[in-house]
Amino acid sequence: MNNLPATRRTEDLVCFSHLRWGFVFQRPQHLMSRFAVRRRVFFVEEPVREEGIEPSLRFRVCEKTRVTVVTPVLPVEATGQQATRMLGKLVRELFTRKKIEEYVAWFYTPMALEFCGKLRPKLAIYDCMDELSLFRNAPPELKQNEQKLFALCDLVFTGGMSLFEAKRGQHSRVYPFPSSVDCRHFAQARSLRDSAPDQVEIAHPRLGYAGVIDERIDIDLIRLIAEQRPDWQLVVIGPVVKIQEDRLPRLANIHWLGMKSYEELPAYFAGWDIAMMPFALNDATRYISPTKTPEYLAAGLPVVSTPIRDVVRQYGDLGLVRIASSPEEFLIETEKAMTYGMTMKWRERADAFLGTLSWDKTWESMNALIEEAISSKSRVKPDTALSQSPAEIGSAA
Asked: 332 lies in a domain?
């Protein structure tokens, strides 16, 4: 990221996200941080609700990334159309207060169309990171809003090949951008000593998982591994979301260590023997392209995964990740990974492949498409520009 050109663009970038900036550091944070080197970036996260307040905006400029995080604050009692109208007014306030005139609109969620107001961006982008309609508690109107977003956007990016295949027939300019990796950051794990304070006393061998713990994780598989191999220690890092804490198996060899910062992850990875990806095979995982796959490999860890389609095609078929289609196979493949470890030839092939997946390269490719699209639209004659640009986005008054 240090080598990205710092030439300032005139267009700002306004990103509408269903995720909080400070939740976990993943695709939105990596990309927006890089765009912020060249232009003002406003990251509008999901609203918070508080008792006894008037609708307002909170701003926080991240020193490290220069991204301005915008948090709408709504009263607890505001729901439905009332909340939508409040959000619409707050978005207009954002544009007025920050003097946002020439800008690119970037969407991570089609639900932003409910409140983002009648925007007229210079360019509109839908970065379809996940198939949100298949996630637990997804709003019923999400699919309809996504169709509207397809009609309004100039470019559509997808978070993996499976999503690309599912979406490419719905827009003329859909581009796949699978999960990338900051190799330098995670490669620290190869030389760090095992120093994470809440992990250092845990015995070996250790199987580790880091990520959000929700309906995409096969809790029963984690329980079975722990029961079948009581001498293996399972270390699980990440926030528990949308599932009850009492559903988590509480065995002596399963260690739920909670959420850790992005900066801390290499220290934890340094103390693992195997990285596991115990994903359930369900609607929520049908199109995922897990960010942790390349991060584990960059850390120098052997990886065992359930047969997630994008993992199989991108990593399993190349022999970079061991694929297990049943609980029994997961145990067998994990034992093989422990026995054979990581040969130098395997590591060289993994590193060569990871060299094609840097976030800098992903940003550069996206940015080139954006620059080309803006230039192309600027050449359109004034009397036809309106018909070839996105319609007014949103309908909130």
From this structure: yes
Same domain assignment for residues 384 and 343: no
Is the predicted pLDDT of residue 245 greater than 50, yes or no?
yes
Give CB contacts under 8 A, 24+ apart, made by 174-179. 175/365, 175/366, 175/369, 177/362, 177/365, 177/366, 178/289, 178/310, 178/314, 178/357, 179/27, 179/289, 179/290, 179/291, 179/293, 179/294, 179/357
φ, ψ of residue 81 in degrees (nearest 5):
-65, -30
Tokens 């918070």 belong to 48
Give the 3-state secondary structure of residue 305: strand
Q: Parallel, antiparallel, or unpaired: how do β-strands 68-75 and 56-61 relate?
A: antiparallel
pLDDT single digits (tens) 105-122? 999 999 999 888 678 999
Mean pLDDT computed over 336-360: 84
Q: What is the sign, positive or negative, of the torsion defined by CA atoms of 355, 359, 360, 362? A: positive
Tokens describing residue 395: 């309908």
Domain that holds residue 61: 12-180+358-388
> For the segment 153-195, what is each residue's pLDDT rounded down to a tens digit?
999 999 999 999 999 999 999 999 998 999 999 999 999 988 7
C-alpha R_g of the chain: 22
The answer to whether the beta carbons of residues 120 and 90 sit under 8 Å apart is: no
Distance CA 234, CA 231 (A): 10
In a domain, 4, yes or no: no
Question: Which residues, including other chains, have CB under 8 Å from residue 289's CB and lie 6 or more apart?
Answer: 159, 160, 161, 162, 163, 178, 179, 310, 311, 314
> pLDDT at residue 396 above 60?
no
By CB neighbour count within 10 A (0-12 exposed, 13-18 middle, 19+ buried), where does 348 fall?
exposed
CB 228, CB 221: distance < 8 Å: no
Residue 394 lies in a domain: no
Q: What is the pLDDT of residue 393?
A: 56
Residue with more model confidence, 140 or 325: 325
Residues 350 and 220 in one domain: yes
